[in-house]
């Protein structure tokens, strides 16, 4: 554990149960049923992804895909625990978790209705850092490999979780100060946001793909706007992650692991844990919008108990926005191969989110064996505050 000289020694951060699990495979939930067209439509609706190849059957049939195809971002929606399961391993009493970032590698098979993803998970590593908002804070990483029903590797995610002592974050109030007040939008401002949103949607609705030779370093993507975020939009996001729908998954454990960390309590503060036994009768008792660690996303009072100033969005959703944003520009023949996004702060209720990206590199023969264009990306709110930064590599045809 790193020294935190500015933090009082009375703060205890026991990582005994975390240390012994590094490098181990871990268990978790696996969806029971294959992905459906409705699952895909629910996902893109929640992500505010207008691309008609994902929801308009008639448009999709006339496209190169010959039918509905899921966005690459849906892999996390067909996982358990918003993709953070293998990055939240070990018991830490009185803790809570927020997303720190995502790294993705996409290997090729597109996800379509009827496909079924399964996951293999591993707790990768961790470090402890002293942070302004909570004192000693655990940054831990976990890997998830996604396989389809044919055994092909679809993609890999490396998620970073930020685990901290909720009472300390609440006491310091740093996140409340940095978030500022919820904006009050005028009718004119909302109309302008809607126009910008529509402008981005129409910018490549037909899915045209820029050729590798057309793209220049310094080119900028059209700005995307999402929001204003609301309790309704957060709840819609939550339900698009299929595991959050009652009865959709079963617990599984990897073979040969003596303590596989399947559904143990990570040490959530009171009111933020699940009642697994009670949920066998009343499924609300393990439904995060009613009881569990996701309560703060849709309840400002509960959010304050974990140091958040008001209801806030999901890290995994922010990662999906990044992939969808670049995929929209890349068109039907483009393919996002890699992304690495660091989250700096959440999307709060009432805020809007902007995505901007610039071409920063080109490689005709990459390690993937295909032409790649590299983009630098930044996600901000209406005040210019940075929510995320990242790099995305996208395959384009010559």
Automatic annotation (TrEMBL):
<dbReference type="Pfam" id="PF13452">
    <property type="entry name" value="FAS1_DH_region"/>
</dbReference>
<dbReference type="InterPro" id="IPR039569">
    <property type="entry name" value="FAS1-like_DH_region"/>
</dbReference>
<dbReference type="InterPro" id="IPR029069">
    <property type="entry name" value="HotDog_dom_sf"/>
</dbReference>
<protein>
    <submittedName>
        <fullName>MaoC family dehydratase N-terminal domain-containing protein</fullName>
    </submittedName>
</protein>
<feature type="domain" description="FAS1-like dehydratase">
    <location>
        <begin position="23"/>
        <end position="156"/>
    </location>
</feature>
């Amino acid at each position: 554990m790193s020294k935190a000289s500015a933090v009082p020694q009375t703060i205890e951060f026991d990582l005994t149960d975390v240390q012994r699990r590094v490098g181990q495979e871990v268990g978790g939930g696996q969806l029971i049923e294959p992905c459906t067209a409705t699952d895909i439509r629910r996902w893109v609706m929640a992500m505010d992804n207008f691309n008609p190849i994902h929801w308009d059957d008639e448009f999709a049939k006339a496209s190169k895909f010959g039918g509905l195809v899921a966005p690459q971002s849906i892999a996390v929606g067909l996982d358990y625990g918003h993709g953070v399961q293998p990055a939240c391993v070990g018991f830490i009493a009185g803790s809570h978790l927020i997303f720190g970032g995502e790294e993705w590698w996409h290997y090729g098979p597109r996800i379509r209705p009827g496909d079924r993803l399964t996951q293999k998970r591993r707790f990768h590593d961790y470090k402890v850092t002293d942070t302004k908002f909570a004192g000693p804070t655990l940054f831990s990483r976990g890997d998830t490999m996604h396989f389809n029903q044919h055994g092909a590797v679809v993609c890999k995610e490396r998620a970073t979780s930020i685990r901290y002592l909720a009472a300390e974050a609440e006491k310091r109030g740093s996140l409340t100060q940095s978030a500022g007040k919820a904006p009050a939008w005028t009718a004119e401002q909302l109309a302008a946001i809607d126009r910008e949103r529509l402008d981005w949607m129409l910018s490549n609705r037909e899915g045209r793909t820029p050729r590798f030779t057309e793209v220049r370093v310094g080119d900028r993507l059209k700005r995307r706007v999402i929001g204003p975020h609301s309790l309704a939009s957060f709840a819609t996001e939550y339900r698009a992650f299929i595991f959050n729908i009652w009865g959709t998954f079963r617990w599984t454990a990897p073979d040969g692991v003596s303590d596989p960390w399947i559904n143990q309590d990570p040490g959530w503060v009171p009111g933020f844990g699940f009642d697994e036994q009670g949920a066998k009768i009343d499924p609300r008792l393990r439904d995060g919008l009613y009881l569990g660690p996701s309560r703060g996303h849709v309840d400002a009072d509960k959010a304050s108990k974990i140091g958040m100033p008001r209801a806030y969005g999901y890290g995994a959703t922010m990662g999906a926005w990044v992939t969808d944003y670049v995929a929209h520009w890349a068109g039907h023949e483009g393919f996002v191969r890699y992304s690495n996004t660091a989250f700096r702060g959440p999307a709060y209720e009432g805020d809007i989110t902007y995505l901007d990206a610039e071409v920063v590199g080109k490689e005709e023969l990459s390690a993937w064996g295909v032409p790649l264009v590299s983009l630098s990306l930044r996600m901000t709110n209406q005040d210019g505050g940075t929510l995320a930064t990242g790099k995305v590599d996208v395959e384009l045809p010559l």
